[in-house]
Amino acid sequence: ASDVSIIATTDVELTLAPAQTVTIVDTGLTIRLIGVTSDERCPSEIECSMSGPVSISLSAQMGDADPVDVTMQTLTDYDGRSPSMKFEGVESRATYEGYLIQVVGVLPYPRKSTSEIKDSDYRVTLVVVRE
User: Fold this and answer.
1) pLDDT of res. 1
2) Tell me, what's the pLDDT at 114?
3) Exposed/middle/buried for 51, CB within 10 Å: 0-12, 13-18, 19+?
4) Which of 8, 49, 90, 102 stands 20 to 30 A from 124 (CA)?
């Protein structure tokens, strides 16, 4: 079931399915992946002049505070991994309550078209770092 919560620590890659929540140990921080809101990556079996970003919607919550919606984008390689370099206009990281949330990967990578991927099939890999 995708509504299962997972527990992780800072500085470690964690992968969420849509609607899944992670609690970061010893921080009071929970992050819920709402889902992938758009995928403009060029399918691997099609030639495109350029490949766009994939956009992710999360909510972050500290303790009992109201959750805050966070939107991020990332470009990825065919393995679904985000590049370490920053691209202008592509916000692959967000800060919340003293923590940096960074997208490090989005799978699956589209092969023929992004419409062949069901929303529920996406997996987003994040790292949370104390700032």
Assistant:
1) 44
2) 85
3) middle
4) 49
Helix (H, G, I), strand (E, B) or coil at 121: helix
Three-state DSSP at 24 gives: strand
116 SS3 class? helix
Token reading at 128: 């949370």
Q: Is the dihedral of CA 95, 97, 98, 100 positive or negative?
A: negative
Instruction: Check if the beta carbon of residue 123 is closer than 8 Å to that of residue 16.
Output: yes
Give strand ranges (E) for the chain.
Answer: 6-8, 14-16, 21-24, 29-39, 54-62, 68-74, 93-96, 99-107, 123-130
Q: Take residue 104 and report the two structure tokens written for it.
A: 């490090």
AA letter at 79: D
| pTM, to two decimals | 0.93
